[in-house]
Amino acid sequence: MSEAGTFTLRFDRTLPVMEIMGEVDIANAQEFETALDRAVNSGPALVVSLEDTSYFDSKGIHVLLLFAGRLARSGQHLALVAKDGSAPRRLLEIAGVPGVVPTYGSIDEAMTAIAGVANGQISLPQSG
């Protein structure tokens, strides 16, 4: 792989958003896990955006699923963002991730869903 992944935490509507840019594979999975761990105490939910992710493999999925389970056990939520038709979205769908972790086509969609959870209007599936 040629484009090392970068993991940036920012806030949108007071909720943390981890933006993944570049590639996530076995070479940087530990760095990805560390970045997620740092973001975990940032709020009741975390949005992980794969919108700018050029490559995402099974090791990245493994890290995400373990992390989602940890969040669920602590009463927090994980929401994923991957554009419809993108390579990361196709991989998530093949692996069945959207059935376990709510997955949206845009950050706005994820934020709207999380706001509904915070207001008690909807509930997101809990993984774990």
Rg to the nearest angstrom?
13 Å
Q: How much strand content do the residues show?
A: 25-35%
Query: What's the helix-strand series?
Result: EEHEHEHEH
Q: Which blocks of ≥5 consecutive residues have pLDDT under 50?
A: 120-128
Question: How many E strands?
Answer: 5
How many helices? The count is 4
User: What distance separates the N and C termini?
Assistant: 31 Å
How is the biggest beta sheet arranged?
A: 5 strands, mixed
Helix proportion: 25-40%
Structural category is: alpha/beta
Shape: globular
Task: Trace the largest sheet across and list its strands.
Answer: 1-2-3-4-5
What's a concise summary of this model?
The protein has 128 residues and is an alpha/beta fold.
Protein architecture, described:
The protein is of the alpha/beta class and 128 residues long. Helix content is 37%, strand content 28%. It contains four helices and five strands, in the order ββαβαβαβα. It has helices spanning 29-39, 58-73, 87-94, 107-118, and strands at residues 6-12, 15-24, 45-56, 77-81, 103-104. The chain has a five-stranded mixed β-sheet, sandwiched between helices. α3 (87-94) links the parallel β4 and β5 (103-104). α1 packs parallel to α2 (58-73). The chain starts with 5 loop residues before the first strand and ends in a 10-residue tail after the last helix. Residues 120-128 have low confidence and may be disordered.
